[in-house]
Design brief:
Structural class: alpha/beta
Number of helices: 10
Number of domains: 2
Distance between the termini: 35 Å
Number of strands: 13
Helix content: 25-40%
CATH class of the largest domain: Alpha Beta
Strand order of the largest sheet: 12-10-9-8-6-7-13
């Protein structure tokens, strides 16, 4: 169910900047300037964040979501803490449940949990702590009134990135996705990227080649194997790889840097992390977290609890970063016109979780395992 909320229209920005919904001064503060860890006088922490797999400071999904917690807490005088489940990328539901229980026992009034892998643990924790509110990023409501789910139209953001990449002049593309091919968000990103590449190739009358793989992204982590694969792609002619999965970015951008190649970032504006980044397929993680936590803070939880809020172009919750625009052949004005077509429905992007066809009129996909 999609909720088009006027507050979101003002709050979600497509320039990679963080604004605060219901917080007066968060827009003046950079999330990086707020400590990741704080000390609470009473040892209790009102807002908790439970990380997805990968590192907290992944320059992507985890960090973007936690930035929302920090910005809201900083603006509203709340205590906050993050919890990383034990065993890292090999964390089990029990590890995640233990992290959530620790958060609740440490005084959390609201827990923000990032990533679809949290579902089983979050359901157990929400049932065990019915008076605590939970925000499930990239999830679903689990049939519980104390769970608010937020999802994004990643296929739209991926489409914009694929379209812009081809319009810029690149025709040999790559996609490396996280979650081993079973993460709905990454699946939508990748499928949208291919659709955008197809549309731009048709407009330009060119042929595009796309290497596509989930091989080393099951845990969303950086690895020598992932970097070696990316290096091989670049050496064989791939010009740009869409790095779609948390800390995977580190391996892919390192390969791109060594081979004088390019990268498309994901989730947040990653241009500041590497000069190899030409653009990023973003979603408004920090803004969405602030908006949901503010519902709790304002006593309006009933508006979001037990429901799924799905955010896309109509909410300004997905898109490319215009503040750091570096593309030369596809302008901000071109992008804004395309974005407007997404909003109006003139351009429709499929959100089906299916593999893009291996051969279309303008794109040839090679699936690499």
């Amino acid at each position: 169910m999609k909720k088009i909320i006027a507050l979101l229209l003002a709050c979600f920005m497509l320039v990679g900047m963080l604004s605060a919904c219901g917080a007066s001064d968060a827009g003046k503060v950079n999330a990086d300037a707020i400590p990741d860890e704080m000390t609470s006088k009473d040892g209790k922490y009102q807002i908790a964040f439970v990380t997805d797999v990968g590192q907290l400071k992944d320059k992507g999904f985890n960090q973007g979501s936690y930035d929302g917690v920090k910005l809201f807490a900083n603006a509203n005088g709340k205590s906050y803490k993050y919890y990383q489940p034990a065993n890292g990328d090999a964390a089990t539901d029990d590890d995640r449940i233990n992290a959530m229980k620790l958060a609740c026992d440490n005084g959390a009034e609201i827990v923000v949990a990032a990533g679809f892998l949290q579902a089983g643990a979050l359901e157990a924790a929400a049932k065990a702590y019915p008076d605590v509110h939970f925000v499930f990023i990239d999830g679903w409501p689990l049939g519980l009134d104390n769970v608010a789910a937020i999802a994004f139209d990643e296929h739209q953001s991926g489409y914009l990135a694929g379209y812009a990449t081809v319009m810029e002049g690149y025709t040999k593309l790559g996609f490396m996705g996280g979650g081993g091919g079973t993460n709905p968000a990454c699946q939508r990103f990748g499928n949208g990227f291919a659709q955008g590449a197809e549309a731009a190739a048709a407009k330009k009358g060119v042929k595009v080649e796309l290497n596509y793989s989930w091989a080393y992204g099951a845990g969303f982590g950086a690895s020598p194997e992932l970097q070696a694969m990316a290096t091989g792609w670049y050496q064989n002619g791939t010009e740009v790889i869409f790095a779609c999965g948390g800390s995977m970015f580190a391996s892919i951008s390192a390969a791109a840097s060594a081979e004088d190649a390019k990268v498309v970032g994901v989730d947040v504006d990653q241009s500041g992390e590497s000069p190899t980044v030409i653009t990023s397929a973003m979603k408004g993680l920090a803004d969405a977290v602030q908006w949901a936590v503010d519902k709790h803070n304002a006593g309006k939880w009933s508006e979001v609890g037990g429901t799924l809020t799905s955010l896309g172009a109509k909410d300004n919750a997905v898109g490319l970063p215009t503040a750091t625009w570096s593309l030369k052949n596809f302008s901000v004005a071109d992008y804004e016109a395309l974005f407007a077509d997404l909003v109006s429905g003139k351009v429709v992007v499929s959100d089906e979780l299916v593999l893009f066809p291996e051969n279309t009129a303008n794109v040839t996909v090679t699936y690499v395992e």
